[in-house]
Amino acid sequence: MHIYANPTRFLALAKWLMPLCFWSGLSLALGAMAWGLFFVPPDRLMGETVRILFIHVPAAWLGMGGWTGIAISSAMLLIWKHPLAAIAARAIALPGMVFCAVCLATGSIWGRPTWGTWWEWDGRLTSMLVLLFLYAGYIALTQAASREGTTPKIAAIFGLVGAVNVPIINRSVVWWNSLHQPPSITMGKSAIDAAYLTPLLVAVIGFSLLFGGIVLMRMRALIADAQVEARLRRRALDDDVPLAGAAAVMEQA
């Protein structure tokens, strides 16, 4: 875990891993969406609206997966004080929030013809909306900590506490009766026809790789910003030394 604690070593890894994840993920995601849009047959019950499945499901997966990544990074910061953990969590937060918002938007579009309503306050939808608010709160905390130069531990604690919502989202359709369908994919089982399942898995893999590439891209940018700030701070301190020496000489005179 501490092998890549050194920013230089991490940047050397991210330099080739980031474009690999980003472009391969983008290719797979676009291919899966084209597959679902043009080659998958309409569903017997949902008709053409089933095609939104190939965006909605990966977005839901990455919305929850993003916060799981924040929780893991927060634990690494609080327990092992990993120097890049806070940067990783900050890098995950924004794309995680975007995918969470995409999940809610596509779910509403899907729900209108399927359920007859744009929104229903059931367990799955409500807990996913709570996750969106958690992302917004976490981003606000990290930005405030960065701006004020305070410890990122408060945001890390928030990231761990907010992780309680992830299993609630996952199990909500089992614990409470709702309009949302029960889990279609469980351990070793799938209720989805192979005509939909194969492109769906490709879409999940593609979006996950794209997500990883974006996170690495953001981590590189955050590390670069931190290095620039450190250089400017050192330069400012170096410039203050001659002024302090001159002031001492004037006082002695």
Automatic annotation (TrEMBL):
Q: Please list every transmembrane segment annotated in the UniProt record, as residue ranges.
A: 20-40, 60-80, 92-111, 123-142, 154-176, 196-217
Task: Look up and give the membrane topology term.
Answer: Multi-pass membrane protein
Keyword set for this entry?
A: Cell inner membrane, Cell membrane, Cytochrome c-type biogenesis, Membrane, Transmembrane, Transmembrane helix, Transport
Q: Does the keyword Transport apply?
A: yes
As for subcellular location, the record says:
Cell inner membrane; Membrane
Its chief place of residence is membrane
GO cellular component labels: plasma membrane
Write one Pfam family the protein is assigned to. Cytochrom_C_asm
Keyword Transmembrane helix included in the entry's annotation = yes
Instruction: Cite a single GO BP annotation.
Output: cytochrome complex assembly
A single MF term (Gene Ontology) = heme binding
Residue ranges constituting the Cytochrome c assembly protein domain according to the UniProt record: 6-180
The record's family statement is: Belongs to the CcmC/CycZ/HelC family.
State the protein's purpose: Required for the export of heme to the periplasm for the biogenesis of c-type cytochromes.
Descriptive protein name = Heme exporter protein C
Designated gene of the protein = ccmC
